[in-house]
Specification:
By secondary structure, the protein is α+β, with helices and mostly antiparallel strands. The chain has a single domain, classed as HIT family, subunit A (2-Layer Sandwich). The protein is 32% helix and 18% strand. The protein is built from three helices and five strands, in the order H-E-E-E-H-E-E-H. A five-stranded antiparallel sheet has the order 1-2-3-5-4, covered by helices on one side. Strand 1 and strand 2 form a beta hairpin. The chain is globular and about 50 Å long.
Length: 139
């Protein structure tokens, strides 16, 4: 896609700090990192989000992420790595090209709001009904 910043990065039209590349996936450091080693893993083929991504591209991104997360562990020795993927402007997806954030966390860093929330008992009947509707829609 012509105006997609990630597509331009893949083509080399915009510089990046590449950490990984294969035939189907590309990974580079986020220039607005949440933490040291914050890496974005993307499919080379433009696709907007999880609703659109072909299964082979999704598999390529996650296969690459497994290699990258091991390298992050070896180099940075984090206490954990958050894997964050947003779909749609309603959840603040800014670049409309599927991407997976790998966000290393070090001891003493503040919690990520998306990975820390208060546990509240849900309405079991409502949860059951929602699960049944989603399962039925899957087929």
């Amino acid at each position: 896609m012509e105006e997609c910043i990630f597509c331009k990065i893949i083509k080399g039209e915009i510089p990046s700090f590449k950490v990984y590349e294969d035939d189907n996936a590309f990974a580079f450091e986020d220039i607005n990192p949440i933490s040291q080693g914050h890496t974005l893993v993307i499919p080379k083929r433009h696709t907007q989000d999880l609703w659109e991504i072909p299964e082979e591209d999704l598999a390529a991104v996650h296969s690459a992420s497994k290699k990258i997360i091991q390298a992050i562990k070896d180099v940075l020795n984090p206490t954990g790595v958050a894997c964050l993927q947003l779909n749609g402007r309603g959840v603040n997806q800014v670049v409309m090209h599927y991407h997976l954030h790998l966000i290393p966390r070090a001891s003493g860093e503040p919690e990520l709001p998306v990975s820390s929330w208060e546990l509240k008992q849900g309405d079991m009947e409502a949860i059951k009904q929602t699960a049944e509707k989603i399962a039925a829609a899957i087929g």
